[in-house]
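Deliverable D4.2, example record:
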Amino acid sequence: TLLATRTTRGRQQTNLRFLGKRLMTATKNPLRDGWTIIVKRECATCVMVVPVIARLARELSSLTVYTQDDPTFPDGVTSVDDSDLAASWHADIDTVPTLIFRANGVETKRTAGWLRSEWRELTGIADLGSELPEFRPGCGSMSVDPDIVDKLRVRFGGEILHARRIEIADAEDEFEAMFSRGFTDGLPVVPPSPERVMRMLSGTSRAPHDVVAIAPPDLVELTVEKIAINAVMAGCLPEYLPWVIAAIEAVCTDEFNMHGVLATTMPVGPVIVCNGPGTRAIGMNSGVNVLGQGNRANLTIGRAVQLTIRNVGGGRPGEVDRAAHGNPGKLSFCFAEDEVGSPFSSLAVSRGFDASQNTVTVFTGEGPR
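Output generated by the structure prediction step:
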């Protein structure tokens, strides 16, 4: 039996910053040095602090006010139209109003919402906002609106995607298009739109162009982006992506010999065993019906590995994949070990890993029988 184990690898420093649930480049902040306030009219707190903003416009040098929804707001104050949300997105604005100070291209001060003591401390104006209540929470920024955040990811971060684009005609069914172009494993797949791929990439801080492995049988470079595309098609959630990446790293090692697994006429395929507290965090099944249907994480992680090897590596049935009969596990064969309820050491611990580590072990196996 061939075994290979990989950890899921924590979020690493890259040329991207991981910010909540979105990726953004670190070099495109449009805010100038000096003071910046970001507001929107459809926010009671922003409306309340208009007198404060007007005073700051008079007393502070280099104050810029961005407004997200109405370029005429705040009344009586010159503002910059941020209806495209570029400034809000790149400045990582979650709440309005937000007051920011930058010097030499670096943000040094920030406060969100209205807390009088903080606004006074940041601006150095001792009696600022005396007529207002001490505290009022802000409102959600339009740049984090769930209805548009995926589009903003693509608009402002889509240049990090380098995969070939395929245009689908308006009259063409996108699900059928995946079948007709040979991208599926025989079951429907989720069309990998740029918005969905960017959302998937938020599951890791590894750069999209990072090469994870060389995929057999065609020996193609597997980047994080290519894996994310196939994870989307498999139906994964972003938090599954580190597990998919780790499993692909493992099956593409010389020890595992994925090319041999594909080329044999035996009905074998990768069996993926997941260990660590992360399996419980993402809801993997390690109990009843563990090898069966019904659990999204188990099925889609294993499926993403198979789709990646098929679509990127070229391991298609009837071509390099020479299995005489195959087995249903070649769609997906992935599960978690029941570490909490077991009196025995886990597979990962027996192979030298700590129980606190998230690991993936792969071996060649046939379908359950």
